[in-house]
Amino acid sequence: MPPGVGLACVFFLCVSLRGCFSGSRETAFTYAISAAGVVNAVSRACREGELSTCGCSRDARPSDLPRDWLWGGCGDNVKYGYRFAREFVDAREREKNYPKGTMDHARTLMNLQNNEAGRQAVYNLANVACKCHGVSGSCSLKTCWLQLADFRQVGEYLKEKYDSAAAMRIGRKGKLEQVDKRFNAPTLEDLIYIDPSPDYCLRNESTGSLGTQGRLCNKTSEGMDGCELMCCGRGYDQFKTYKHERCHCKFHWCCYVKCKRCTSLVDQFVCK
Q: What does the pLDDT read at residue 136?
């Protein structure tokens, strides 16, 4: 992929996927993960020299790093990525001027909170990475730098925040307040939502839900792709279909792989 294309794709998705959902917890996750994606993409682009406005991370040496380890490898510039994402992602929300106490204003506050939670996830999960140097892998010297966590780890972290997201409502002063005050108030790292989630089992064009009727499912899985969960208790139909795939592949010198095309009859399951 040419330099900058991946970054542009993240920005495009960040803008295009927003503003078309209700204020549900699924929307909260969408905002958080897209904001996290901007931080991740910009931080990496800085390190790889794709942006003229930033370079490698200049974070201070961690106090717990062993004294004989070198600090100063070209790390991911998480601080710049965080600042850029805050300006870029939040701009669309901050330019709105809805009256306090309205649902539109509440939605703006919700979006800003979830944007920040996404940025915090990338920032807080970044850690120190080191590389050994020395003759024959003796690791007599180490060079260390700041490195972003794998983005899948960020996604899993935000999924946990999604599961524990706090339901909010408009308070007397036009600010958001927690519906169930028995729980701790959400921090900047937590997701919040103001609307209940729609029923995603059924097709509903107004909420953007395609439903699960006609979806392929896995009869033996207990996960999200399992027929019991995906079909929402409606049951499923079974049918047989031919599956074509490459098989009996052999490497030929030099240098290509030749495969045969195998066909098999398999069972498939579709939600009613």
A: 65
164: which residues sit within 8 A by CB, 6+ positions away?
190, 191
Tell me the two tokens of residue 194: 């103001």
211 φ/ψ sector (left φ>0, alpha ψ -120 to 50, else beta): left
Burial grade of 130 (CB within 10 A; 0-12, 13-18, 19 or more): middle
**pLDDT tens across 188-231, in order?**
999 999 999 888 888 888 767 789 999 999 999 988 889 999 99
Looking at the chain, list the stretches that DSSP marks H as alpha helix, in order from N- to C-terminal side: 5-16, 25-47, 78-94, 103-125, 151-163, 227-230
**What stretches in the chain show pLDDT beneath 50?**
1-16, 19
Q: Any idea what the Cα angle at residue 34 is, between residues 19 and 93, rounded to 5°? A: 45
Break the chain into its structural domains and give their ranges: 5-197, 216-271
CATH architecture of 216-271: 2-Layer Sandwich (3.30)
DSSP secondary-structure letter at 19?
Answer: S
Question: What are the respective helix, strand and coil percentages of the chain, to the nearest 5?
Answer: 35, 25, 40
pLDDT of residue 176: 94
The string of pLDDT tens digits covering residues 56-66 is 998 889 888 88
Read off the amino acid at residue 97: N
Give pLDDT, residue 8: 44
CA angle 20, 26, 28 (to 5 degrees): 80
Question: DSSP per residue over 112-124, as a string?
Answer: HHHHHHHHHHHHH
